[in-house]
Design a protein that fits this description.
There is one protein chain. With 379 residues, the chain is α/β, with parallel strands linked by helices. It has helices spanning 2-27, 56-64, 86-91, 115-125, 144-150, 171-194, 209-215, 228-239, 262-273, 283-308, 311-339, 345-366, and strands spanning 43-49, 73-79, 98-102, 130-133, 159-161, 164-166, 205-208, 244-246, 254-256, 373-374, 377-378. It folds into two domains: 2-24 and 280-378, no CATH class; 32-264, Alpha-Beta Complex (Spore Coat Polysaccharide Biosynthesis Protein SpsA, Chain A). It is built from twelve helices and eleven strands. The strands form three sheets. Strands 3-2-1-4-7-5-8 form a seven-stranded mixed beta sheet, with helices on both faces. It has a two-stranded parallel sheet with strand order 6-9. A two-stranded antiparallel sheet has the order 10-11. It is globular, with a radius of gyration of 22 Å. The two termini are 43 Å apart. The model has no long low-confidence stretch (mean pLDDT 89).
Length: 379
């Protein structure tokens, strides 16, 4: 009984240790700027788009404002069988550097669309030595392409991940997504650079075209709805363990938009979490499972302690909860500083309480054959 009583506290102490270690690694991320001279490097910005008529123009315009001091630059959008006016918006763009490609024609092709297929198609037809990717609902900052490309002046660099944030979050829903994304971004950057786990965002990614084609990272997972970034990163780690970098520069943060509505958010996150079922017992799965057990242990302890009036369990579980809160607050303070996320303090407590329940729920659902709908497709 004593072992079960102290279990929530032990989990939270371990959790604090993991976060402190990741924060230490974050502080040790190489801040030195890459050299700004090197061999000629042509570049292609590839964007996969599906049903993004409201956002795609801003995305493409931000991409066309980029420059490449090392060579040519082109922007490619691959339409993933949109059934809205995405193509009509793109066809009106008049710029010699821009190309619109289509992954089959909506309702007139036997090709089963997917984001991975759209990205692979764009890369295969790109002319650039370096591929930069972002999402169709994102905007990239001025100078983004130039600074991402500078990393590739070092011959051994094969892939560079960059930071992503929610642009101008509003209300509880907006800050829920913004705080979740910034905290995860910091943890994943520290984990990727030091090799403890590999997670990143395809909304701010760059890699050598030749390395992408040789890696063939999507060969066995085209039908998995999510993971175009994670499966590629994992494959690159296998082939080029010393060739991965994180672009530690707040000016390179790519802005994305918050999902509208809690239902849409849950569908998005279940789709993201669903890839865990296909990734096997790797470090990401073990880390996620540990965090899930840490969350569930003190929740269960609080409930059991109140129902049975067993005060030792109640107090230990409360202490475990407060330990996690302190560790998460420390993490969030570092993350929001890097991502320049302001006015987050009033939202932290309600977001923190909701996020615990969200993490427990999505953790369970990720392991079950739960189907979700995303942009008109069942995933």
């Amino acid at each position: 009984m004593l072992t079960l009583t102290v279990l929530p506290l032990l989990f939270s102490l371990l959790y604090c240790g993991v976060l402190v270690r990741l924060l230490f690694r974050w502080c040790k991320v190489d801040r030195t700027l890459p050299v700004s001279s090197g061999p000629a490097l042509s570049a292609s910005i590839v964007v996969a788009a599906r049903n993004e008529e409201d956002h795609i123009l801003a995305c493409v315009q931000s991409c066309l404002q980029q420059s490449n001091p090392f060579g040519s630059l082109e922007v490619i959008v691959v339409d993933d069988q949109s059934d809205d006016d995405t193509c009509a918006v793109l066809e009106a763009i008049d710029d010699p550097r821009f190309s619109l490609m289509q992954l089959g024609v909506y309702r007139r092709t036997t090709i089963k669309g997917s984001k991975k297929k759209a990205i692979a198609y764009g890369v295969q037809h790109a002319h650039g030595d370096i591929i930069l990717t972002t999402d169709a609902d994102c905007t990239v900052p001025p100078g983004w392409a130039k600074e991402m490309l500078e990393h590739f002046c070092e011959p051994g660099v094969q892939l560079v991940c960059g930071p992503v944030r929610i642009a101008a979050p509003k209300g509880l829903l907006g800050y829920f997504q913004a705080l979740d994304l910034t905290a995860n971004g910091l943890v994943n950057a520290a984990g990727m650079v030091h090799g403890s786990h590999d997670l990143c965002s395809g909304a701010n990614l760059a890699y050598r075209r030749e390395s992408f084609l040789l890696a063939d990272a999507y060969e066995h997972n085209y039908d998995i709805a999510s993971g175009d970034d994670v499966f590629l990163l994992r494959r690159m780690r296998e082939l080029h363990p010393e060739g991965l970098r994180f672009a530690y520069n707040p000016s390179l943060v790519v802005d994305t938009r918050a999902v509208g509505g809690w239902g849409a958010l849950m569908r998005q996150r279940l789709r993201w979490a669903g890839k865990l079922r296909w990734m096997g017992m790797n470090r990401i799965f073990v880390l996620a499972a540990f965090v899930w057990l840490q969350r569930i242990s003190w929740h269960a302890g609080l409930i059991a302690g109140m129902l049975t009036n067993f005060r030792p369990l109640l107090f230990v579980s409360l202490a475990a909860m407060l330990l996690q809160f302190a560790a998460d607050a420390l993490l969030q303070s570092h993350a929001t500083k890097f991502y320049h996320l302001k006015s987050w303090h009033p939202y932290f407590l309600p977001v923190w309480l909701l996020h615990n329940l969200y993490f427990i729920g999505t953790g369970l659902s990720a392991l079950l054959p739960v189907s979700t709908e995303w942009k008109g497709r069942t995933a």
